[in-house]
Specification:
globular; binds nicotinamide-adenine-dinucleotide
């Protein structure tokens, strides 16, 4: 990592962030702006257009027009592919600039941002570009005298609403397959992480993305996001974020045009360590990074550690020493292992969970406090909470911070009962040398992804999605295409 280049980019002035509508950067229709606060030091980085419902409507009209006139959906797939591949290459060429801009905006440590943000966005766009001209319709096995054709047609205008933790990676998971399928998009980034996605979209124009195909409207969820969700001209809504917002989007769909709504929501993922784990030191190290990296602001974070009782105390002691050794601080320092909490509101929310646990007499093994206050930024010490009850809010609800709870179990059945004992079902982890046990547990765990003898990490070839109240859609892999195609049957008498 080039420290000097990062330091130079840290100093670059950030111009006011404007929407991208119909290929043009524009201010809010009423001139409204909101401050963009850097969680690194609490300073105001720049301002951002505070979008209005009218701005969202204008972007949707641009996307509708771009879809209906076929400038994108009607383009030869091989031509769409060339543009998307060029875009992916340009993202790679701008990777450091995009990563540093994103870190200044959202606080993720640069080591993780470089891996997970521009690189992953470029990889995603490339994956779907390469796949788009390998999708065929079907000829149905009908009786002689009839011909049944199944066409796959792009659904139309896609509304995408994304959160702040990985704006480029998650944004690309939405727009990659949508654009490759021939749809047009209106995306609303999160209030506290819009800058890097806007830049990524601008780079798309340089790659030849026709105007109106990808529109980005900044601002507040309750205004811009709600306007997209309520629009009768949006055909599909794809969302990553909290369950509370997900519920609102479903209601908005019901009130408007019954648009399909795909939700990727939160997690409260169990990470289960059996005494026969192949390497307990590795299990602890990977589990620590699986909850503390990016200050826990990772949807699949292993936030509930379930440990076989015989190794519980020793394991908690090891985890504590790792948590205390974790380098938390300036996200633009390549040595930092956990950067800033995204906003002062998120930090206050994290600390409220700890206050409640402390008041209930739970054991705050380490952390539990705001740190580095003199920086003006939002930092929290990696935190372990033991002695919790399954019904505690800190066990049931997603904190989305550097906070792990620890519970002991004696049997596989008990581990499963604790693991499955929340309403969420995004991810799970499992550490054991017993192959039969691993398969038994994979089958019984209620989760969209189960990691065995590792935690986190995967690639574009496998889907990511939750069960239960963690959502109903999948990002990544060829399965993600399904959301963006309609099936149209042609039934022909010969
Ligand atoms: P959030 O729901 O508050 O916000 C997400 C997005 O929704 C933002 O762009 C926001 O502006 C918008 N929004 C807010 N209110 C809205 C409304 N009334 N109508 C329309 N849009 C609205 O969530 P957040 O706090 O930004 O993100 C954190 C959440 O995202 C966590 O729960 C986390 O687990 C989840 N997440 C899930 C995944 C996954 O793949 N399942 C990945 C990352 C994050």
């Amino acid at each position: 990592m080039d420290r000097n280049a990062i330091e130079e980019l840290r100093k670059v002035d950030v111009p006011p962030a404007l929407h991208l509508i119909d290929g043009v950067r524009v201010a809010a229709s009423d001139g409204g702006e909101m401050p963009v606060v850097s969680p690194i030091d609490g300073s105001v980085l720049t301002t951002m257009a505070r979008g209005t419902a009218q701005d969202a409507a204008q972007a949707i009209t641009a996307a509708r027009q771009a879809f209906d006139d076929g400038r994108w959906s009607g383009m030869a797939p091989s031509a769409r592919k060339v543009i998307l591949l060029k875009w992916a290459d340009l993202i790679d060429a701008h990777a450091l600039e995009l990563a540093v801009l994103g870190v200044r905006d959202n606080g993720t440590e640069i080591s993780m941002a470089l891996k997970a943000e521009p690189k992953s966005a470029a990889g995603t766009i490339r994956y779907y570009a390469e796949a788009l001209d390998k999708i065929y319709g079907e000829i149905a096995p009908t009786a002689r005298g009839t011909l049944g054709l199944v066409h796959k047609t792009p659904v139309g205008v896609v509304g995408a609403i994304v959160p702040w933790n990985f704006p480029l990676m998650i944004g690309a998971w939405k727009i990659g397959p949508a654009l490759a399928a021939g749809c047009t998009v209106v995306l609303k980034p999160a209030e506290t992480a819009s800058l890097s996605f806007l830049r990524l979209a601008e780079v798309g124009l340089q790659a030849g993305l026709p105007k109106g195909v990808l529109n980005v409207v900044c601002g507040e969820g309750a205004i811009v996001g709600a306007a997209i969700a309520e629009s009768p001209d949006v055909d599909v809504l794809v969302f990553t974020g909290s369950g509370a917002t997900g519920r609102r989007l479903l209601q908005a769909s019901a009130r408007s045009n019954l648009k399909r709504v795909y939700l990727e929501l939160g997690g409260k993922s169990p990470n289960i360590i059996f005494a026969d784990a192949p390497d307990l030191d590795e299990a602890v190290a990977v589990s620590a990074s699986g909850i503390f990296r990016n200050s826990g602001q990772v949807c699949i974070a292993g936030s509930r550690l379930l440990v076989e009782r015989s190794i519980h105390d020793a394991l908690v002691a090891k985890l504590k020493s790792m948590a205390e050794a974790m380098v938390v601080g300036d996200p633009l320092d390549p040595a930092t292992q956990a950067g800033a909490v995204n906003s002062d509101q998120q930090l206050a929310r994290n600390l409220a969970f700890i206050d409640e646990a402390r008041a209930a007499g739970r054991d705050i093994v380490c952390g539990g406090t705001r740190i580095l206050t003199d920086t003006g930024g939002y930092y929290m010490a990696p935190t372990i909470v033991a002695g919790v009850a399954q019904s505690d809010r800190i066990v049931q609800d997603e904190v989305f911070g550097p906070v792990v709870t620890v519970q002991a179990f004696d049997t596989e059945d008990e581990a499963i009962a604790l693991a499955n004992g929340t309403e969420l079902g995004l991810a799970a982890g499992l550490w054991t040398s017993n192959l039969s046990r691993a398969h038994r547990m994979i089958a019984r765990l209620r989760a969209g992804v189960v990691h065995v003898n590792t935690y986190g990490g995967s690639d574009m070839t496998v889907p990511l999605g939750g069960v239960g109240q963690s959502g109903n859609g999948h990002d990544k892999s060829l399965h993600a295409f399904d959301k963006f195609f309609d099936l149209k049957t042609a039934w022909i008498k010969l």
